[in-house]
Design brief:
It is built from 16 helices and no strands. By secondary structure, the chain is mainly alpha-helical.
């Protein structure tokens, strides 16, 4: 029998048509399966979501009163409930609770606690945790800078050359991390690696949330950043990256650049030859 000249092309088009049909059928089956899974999950999820939102809404309404929120901090189990209300996930499934925290000025209580000469480890950890919970929100840092009455920090310098109230409020933490000569209180305060890391995160959060033109700090802060030792600064490439990030954030302010130009330590650090180093993740 005679074979058509275009028999090969006809066979190829037939195979391609079958493949396209099979692919379309597989996609249709996947869509049906996904739809059935979503259909099964919708009914259990909706009541849980509604109940969670309702509980958070009731908490938001009840603790609009600053005095009630302050009393909750001192109540048994209250700090745990505050941690849940200030949790980032909670802000996605219910009303935003942080404005209530700022109205109650919980950050001021944390700063007053950190200024105490004798603190138990859990008291200091709780104060740092509450302060970090607030400072990781830019809106909270901005409100703190504008409206808070600054607590009395550790006096490390007679000249107050801070560009914002937020930076001046955490002078105690800046002194703990970067002061050239530390008091006995500061020597014992940062013994825990976790608490040292929390102090650095709070400082970086406040600096990052402060407008660039308002990031002025005293010269000892810049010197302390380049000379800082121990955790987290000596924790490998991540520590050096953290040091460089914080210094670059502060050098976006012209007044800090003038202080850096007059500091031999900062100039020597900036003139160092850069290097690439891989982090050991094993």
């Amino acid at each position: 029998y005679a074979v058509p000249v275009d028999g090969t092309a006809a066979g190829s088009s037939s195979v391609a048509a079958r493949l396209s049909l099979a692919r379309a059928q597989a996609e249709a089956r996947n869509q049906r399966d996904e739809g059935s899974v979503l259909e099964r999950l919708r009914w259990p999820i909706l009541p849980v979501s509604a109940a969670t939102w309702l509980l958070l809404c009731v908490s938001w309404w009840r603790y609009r009163d600053p005095e009630k929120l302050k009393s909750l901090e001192q109540a048994s189990g209250g700090p745990v409930l505050l941690d849940l209300l200030g949790w980032r996930f909670a802000s996605h499934v219910g009303p935003y609770q942080i404005p209530n925290f700022m109205r109650a000025r919980l950050h001021e209580e944390s700063l007053r606690t950190l200024a105490e000469p004798l603190l138990l480890d859990y008291e200091r950890g709780r104060a740092l945790g509450r302060l970090e919970q607030l400072t990781q929100r830019r809106v909270a840092v901005a409100e703190m800078s504008m409206s808070m009455e600054t607590a009395q920090p550790f006096q490390i310098s007679e000249s107050k050359s801070y560009g914002s109230a937020g930076l001046h409020a955490i002078e105690l933490l800046l002194a703990e991390a970067f002061a050239p000569s530390k008091s006995p209180q500061q020597e014992t305060a940062g013994a825990s690696k976790t608490q040292k890391a929390a102090v650095v995160r709070i400082i970086l959060d406040v600096v990052s949330a402060t407008p660039e033109e308002m990031r002025a700090v005293p010269d000892w802060v810049l010197d302390g950043i380049v000379n800082a030792k121990d955790d987290p600064w000596d924790s490998g490439p991540q520590g050096e990256e953290l040091r460089a990030t914080l210094l670059c954030q502060l050098l976006r302010t012209p007044s800090n650049c003038k202080l850096a130009a007059a500091s031999s330590d900062v100039c020597n650090y900036l003139q160092q030859t850069g290097m690439k180093q891989k982090e050991d993740t094993l």
